[in-house]
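Possible race condition, two jobs.
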Amino acid sequence: MSALGDATLSASVRLLAQPSTPDATLPASTVPDVDVTPGVWGFVAIAFVAVATVLIIVDMTRRVRRTRYRGEVRERIQAERDGVASGETAASGDGVTSGDGVASGDGTTRAVDDASDGDASAGPFVRD
């Protein structure tokens, strides 16, 4: 380093190493430490923030759970549709089912109650 850089560095170190003393021109604090508290309004503000945080967390948990359940229902409906579609093609190839019948294990068909299942094309849980 140069001589100027060394002089600047040593002056900075000396200034930083000196203990910091309060300025003699400032008056001493006249307020007791007991009076320097947040008070009732500080408590109310913190309590409000705490209650709001709890309510937001409960709402977020409910929304995440609802979204997860909707995804599970969509997967279940899609699996049922895929199963019905593959079951109809396999059954129609064997000549086991016809019309609205559902194939049973013994080769007979039983009627499907459309009133209890809702619209068969939309699935039981899907609404427009």
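Job #2 (started ~2 s after job #1):
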Amino acid sequence: MTNETRYGVTRPSEDDIRKGDFSTPWDAPMVPPFPFRFRNVEVMTLYWRTDPEALAFLLPPPLRPTGDVACVHIYRMNDTDWLGPYSEANVMFGAELPGKASGAYSPYLVLSSDIGVAHGREVHGQPKKLGMPSIEMRGDLIVGRVERNGIDVLTATLPYKQKPVEAAALKPHFDFATNLNLKAVNHIDGRPAIRQLTSRRLAEVTVHEAWEGPCTVELRANAQLPVYRLPVVEPLRGFYWRADFTLVAGEIIHDYLESAP
């Protein structure tokens, strides 16, 4: 049987459905295929020293923390394939799977795009939820906010463009370009379908400008976005930077179901 075409779209065959990069609804798919490009992204990256026991508590085994520093990236995505403009916040800290992978684990992510939430959860296993991160220029101050449920869960400040730095300075504590996540998906009958640790690395990164300065990070409690579980012991440095990058496929670094006794 030939695939029928109507309204400018082609009805998929069973083989099409089995292929990678398939998404529903098939005549207006939600999840973009790899790769897709982010252009002119504005980022606030804020580091703070936190409780090492909190890091260890939030990490799924067998991952291990690699320090006592957490960070948040607050993104203003100005021009993204498929998704269009939106905002995102990614809370991270250094972690490793000894002998296999090292990078940054994401316990919390929040963003304003339903496509971004679906893609992050379905493909990467990122714990994404809807919310409203923002970056705002207020005179000589850059203000970053992460809002969910009407609560400013995180508020950060950074002086406006005081000290230019090279791109290498953006990662003083861990390599956040490699993102580690716990992917968990069930079958419809409740049986576990996927239980994996995944890793992906941003590609084709071009940093247009980067600025460093002292920062502040304030956390407020929210049971549905509990970033407060990574308390601010000491605010460290912050960065404002603009970049282009490409999101590409990653890899499975640990499969809990295959390694089960």
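The CA atoms of residues 106 and 148 lie 17 Å apart.
Logs attached separately.
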